[in-house]
Structures are given as structure tokens and as C-alpha cells.
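Quick note —
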Amino acid sequence: MRERTADLGYKRFQDGGAAKDDLIPTHSYVFGSWVEAGIVGAIFWMFFLIYTAYTLFSASGDEPLLPFFAFVALMLMWDILFSPLGTPTRFIAPFFMVTIILFRRFQIGLPEPGWQTE
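Predicted structure written out below.
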């Protein structure tokens, strides 16, 4: 049975039963996106890494919820560089990215969309 499944191309039974696959193991958003989307994907995550670091380090301390924003920024930077293999962080990353953009809006004093009064 093992020989027959190996002949059919099942990778599980090739090379003495060791599991094999053709995927490149990448453990960061930067390199994972480089493999899956090309150089533009890597450039996007490098840009957002630099944007997040700049936003975090240019905080004045007057922003509302600064500890929350700092936590989100550090978690996002960690995930961009050393993303864990679990899928929950893939769903949380867009929330973190929107949070960092909101934090930057607090820093530069832009009015919130839809809150303008005339």
C-alpha cells in the first residue's frame, strides 16, 4: 500500500514516510508576501513596518489611549518581522493596521471623517 501511494505521487509516503511539501517556510509577513506576491508585497510590508515604527516613536504622549496604541504598534511590528504561524494573527493584522492609521491621525490632528460641523 505504501509503495502504491508513493508511486501515485503522495508526498506523505515518499522518503521513508516523512512528510514533504514544496512550500517555502517563511515566518514573517515580509518574506511570506515576497514569496506569494512578489517584490511589491515585500515593499508594502516594509513600508508599513517603517510607518508603524515612525508613528510609535513620534508619539508626543498627549494622544488618547497611548498605551493601547503602543501595544498595538509593538504587536504589529513583531508580527511583520516574526509572524507566528497561527491564522488568528492574520485576521488581527488588518485591525492593527487601521489602529495605527487612526493613531497617526490623532498625532497630526486631522479631523475624524464624518465629524465635521459647519
